[in-house]
Amino acid sequence: MTLTADQRRARILEVVRAQGTVRVVDLAAEIGLAPVTVRRDVAALAEEGALRRSHGAVSLPDTAPAVGPDGRSIVVGMLVPAVGLYFDEVIAGARAAADEVGARLVLGVSGYRPDNDRAQVEQLIRSGADGLLLTPTWTPETGAADPGGTDWISELPLPTVLVERRAPISSPLSRLDAVGSDHRQGVLTTLRHLAALGHESVLLAARADSWTAHEVRAAYAEAAPLLGFTPHPVLGLDPVTRDLDAVATRLTEAVATGVHAVLVHNDQDALQLAPLLRSRGLRIPEDLAVISYDDVVAALADPPLTAVAPPKQAVGRAAMELLLRRSAPPGKSLPVHHIELLPDLMIRTSCGGQR
């Protein structure tokens, strides 16, 4: 299975932590990757400060332990809406960055319940958190574009970084640090790729129950006209009824009218759509190019799905590193950071070649 850049770099750090100083050529052999790929990943990690390079070898940087004002190890509270799949990788990135400096990560899970966000955060503070990484439950129903129900976050007494959330400038939360994936750029990259393959029209099948879904839908509405694509209504995917049969039928009808490409949010729905499309006589990618969004399990589909891969682990790492800079005594004077990391497009079998 092809590794993403995040997965390769996580593996590099794992080997270096276990072995200490390692020559790049030996590192490449240990991981089973081409030396040129490892050198590129090592250079990126060194630029981030995660590795130190010297004379063809790499090692961990000399990093002082992260300690709070009272001299104990810093405790970071992290709120996520769910564990599993997407957020597992975000958590892994944050945990790796915390482990490297001896910080402790404490997790809270809201279960995508907006009314549970505050209770979870209060519990994290009671657990002794010195800083917070927060992914509040913003959905179209609860305020994806105007998260007024979570304005209380701006009043918290601890350094706080929003993770995979971007507050509108009208919100007091816009004055908080934020680290996330640039989902809009991810969608634009996808549509450009399909245009380069000769497609003149692309459908979007997407949920409407999460922040990412909101961003993907908005990006499609903006990017499709820019690339000259024929506009189409979004094919809604209901996360409750899971009525994928209706979506498969509409995609079959669209192919009959000359539309031969679809972007599906997310991987799970794309995986389940594939056999439904085959049962209706459609071949992937010959009749319909399919690209999924998230790239958590897309590579395991048949055929393997080309997918937009948000840099999930890198987001978690960058958020943790920023928070640790805020939390370390005597306190650093930093401007507010709004960091957006660009997703990759992982090319696999399902989008085919030149039409």
Total beta-strand segments: 15
Approximate strand percentage: 15-25%
Structural class: alpha/beta
Q: Shape, please?
A: globular
**Arithmetic mean of pLDDT:** 88
Rg over CA atoms, rounded to whole Å, is 22 Å
Gap between N and C termini: 26 Å
Overall structural domain count = 3
What would you give as the CATH superfamily of the largest domain? Response regulator
Description:
The chain is of the alpha/beta class and 355 residues long. It folds into 3 domains: 5-59, Arc Repressor Mutant, subunit A; 75-181 and 311-342, Rossmann fold; 183-310 and 345-351, Response regulator (Rossmann fold), CATH 3.40.50. Helix content is 39%, strand content 17%. Helix 9 links the parallel strand 11 (261-265) and strand 12 (289-293). Helix 6 (183-196) crosses helix 7 and helix 8 (244-256) packs across helix 9 (267-279). It is globular. The chain starts with a helix and ends in a 9-residue tail after the last strand. Mean pLDDT is 88; it is low at 142-146. One of its GO terms (molecular function) is DNA-binding transcription factor activity.
